[in-house]
Amino acid sequence: MTSGLHIALTVLGAYVLLRFISILIGRVEKVMVKDKGEFFATIETEKRVRTLGNILRKATFVTVFVVALMMVLREVGIDIALIITGAGIIGIAVGFSAQSLVRDVISGFFIILENQVRVGDVAVINGTGGLVEEINLRTIVLRDLEGTVHVFPNGTINALSNKSRGWACYVIDAGVAYKENVDMVMDVLKEVGEEIYKDETFRPLILEPLTVLGVDSFGESEVTIKCIIKTQPLKQWEVGRELRRRIKNTFDQKEIEIPFPHLSVYFGEASKPFALDINQKNGKFVSSDKG
Predict the structure, then answer these.
(1) 196, 242 in Cβ contact below 8 A?
(2) CA-CA distance, 128 to 163, in Å (whole number)?
(3) Residue-by-residue pLDDT tens, the chain, 291 positions
(4) What is the CATH number of domain 168-253?
């Protein structure tokens, strides 16, 4: 009866402790991202706090679970000293045999410590892009635009690109026909950039007005003018789509041609094309070669 009561109290105490710590971590997260002058509620702070909060919850759960399990085993009459000694020996053996696991954990620790990527970021890992949903000591979980979940062991990450850290840029390559005056086109692009910058809906998302860098390249059928606009992280695609829509409508209004790929065939002087004269005779079309 005494051992059963102790076991019940241990399990209940572990549950209450986990709930208390989870609520405490949640309160700390809210305080850290709340704008009170001391803490500035930015997207960066929120991502960082959410990532660390998830790690703390998982670490707390494992610690409390292991301690509660040891206490229950001791009440049952099992010598936990032998279990701890055996676990240490097994841990050393696993450390030598499962080197990839140790590598994943160490890599995950440095990813979190160096703040390379956070939950809620858009990142490209080993060539695969998506939204970061989970960051663990062993793995990072991405979900791409199609909803597919990609899991990467931290030790196998060779290239990590964060598309939403601090600020972001959207690059537009506007192609116009060769007959257009590029100076006039660049002035039009600046006007469109000023309009979206002054828009009340998009102004909070934009950090700097549209910058027209100039003529970037000469294509087969168009002159490419490169533009760039600086935005809040994760807002570059929303601003970019609206900017492209306004550029297209403005070009249509001002009759600025956006060319499509086409091919002009030139035979040269050495091989002139054949001239055909098509006449209708007796209800039938007859062609005569005049070349």
Answers:
(1) yes
(2) 12
(3) 566 777 788 888 888 888 888 888 777 767 666 654 444 445 666 666 777 777 778 778 888 888 888 887 777 777 667 667 766 766 666 665 567 777 888 888 888 878 888 888 899 999 999 999 988 888 999 999 889 999 999 989 999 999 888 888 999 999 999 999 999 999 999 999 999 999 999 999 999 999 999 999 998 888 999 999 999 888 999 999 999 999 999 999 999 998 876 666 666 665 565 665 666 555 555 555 554
(4) 3.30.70.100
* Domain over 122-162 is classified CATH 2.30.30.60: yes
Q: Are 150 and 173 in contact (CB under 8 A)?
A: no
One-letter amino acid at 72 equals V
Architecture of domain 2-97 in CATH? Orthogonal Bundle (1.10)
* Per-domain residue ranges of the chain: 2-97, 122-162, 168-253
Long-range contacts: 213-219, Cβ < 8 Å, 24+?
214/186, 215/182, 216/173, 219/175
